[in-house]
Write a structure and sequence with these properties.
Layout (H helix, E strand, L loop, with lengths): L2 E7 L8 E7 L17 H14 L1 E7 L1 H7 L1 H16 L5 E5 L9 E4 L2 H4 L1 H24 L5 H4 L5 H10 L10 H4 L5
Parallel strand pairs: 1-4, 4-5
Antiparallel strand pairs: 1-2, 2-3
Helix pairs in contact: 1-5, 2-3
Length: 185
C-alpha cells in the first residue's frame, strides 16, 4: 500500500509562499527523530531533510502570497497541498494530511496533530519547513533590513517594526492583519 503524507509550512507567516510537501516513505523505512518540524531545531531538521530527500519520493507544491490574498490562507494551503501531490506524479492508495481539512485529492484522511503521530506526515512537515526556510534565507539577501533569516516571515516584534519602518515588500501578504495598516515599499 502506497501512502502519501502531506503537510505545509508558512501558513501563519506574513510574507512568502505557503509551501506544502507530499512524501512517500519507502517500505520498511525508519528514521529516528521524525516528528513535527516545529519541534526540531534547525540542525536536526536539516539532517532529517537530507535523509528524507535522498531516500524518499517527495514533491513540493506552493501557493504565492498573491494567491493567498486572493483566496485566503486556508484555500491557498489546500491548493499548495494539491499541487504537491500532483507534482509527486505517483499513484498512491491513501493520503494522510496534517490538520482538519483535506485538499481536493482522492482517498485523503485529515489527522489532527498528524505530524506528531504519523511518520509520513512528519517527513512531509520537515520537507515543507526546510524548503520554506531556504526561501526565506534567499529573501533575506534581497531585503536584509527585514531580518527574514531570523523570523522566517512570522509576525515577530522585529518583523512588525521592519514593516513599520520600511513598508511591506511585494512578497508580503497584504490581507494579513499586521500589514493592512502599512505602506508598500
Amino acid at each position: 500500500m502506497i501512502i502519501v503524507g502531506i503537510d505545509e509550512a508558512g501558513r501563519g507567516a506574513l510574507v512568502g509562499n505557503v509551501v506544502a510537501s507530499a512524501v512517500i516513505l519507502p517500505k520498511d523505512f525508519y528514521l529516528a527523530g521524525l516528528t513535527d518540524s516545529k519541534k526540531l531545531n534547525a540542525t536536526k531538521r536539516e539532517y532529517l531533510y537530507k535523509v528524507i530527500s535522498q531516500k524518499c519520493k517527495w514533491a513540493i507544491g506552493e501557493a504565492t502570497n498573491i494567491e493567498i490574498d486572493k483566496i485566503n490562507i486556508l484555500q491557498a494551503s489546500l491548493l499548495a497541498m494539491e499541487r504537491a501531490v500532483k507534482n509527486l506524479n505517483t499513484r498512491y492508495d491513501n493520503a494522510l494530511v496534517d490538520g482538519i481539512h483535506c485538499p481536493n485529492i482522492n482517498n485523503c484522511k485529515a489527522i489532527v496533530k498528524g505530524d506528531l503521530t504519523e511518520p509520513v506526515i512528519s517527513a512531509a512537515s520537515i520537507v515543507a519547513k526546510v524548503t520554506r526556510d531556504k526561501q526565506m534565507l534567499l529573501l533575506d539577501k534581497t531585503y536584509p533590513e527585514y531580518n527574514f533569516s531570523k523570523h522566517k516571515g512570522y509576525a515577530t516584534k522585529n518583523h512588525i517594526k521592519a514593516i513599520s519602518d520600511f513598508g511591506y515588500t511585494k512578497f508580503h501578504r497584504k490581507s494579513f492583519a499586521p500589514i493592512k495598516d502599512f505602506k508598500s515599499r
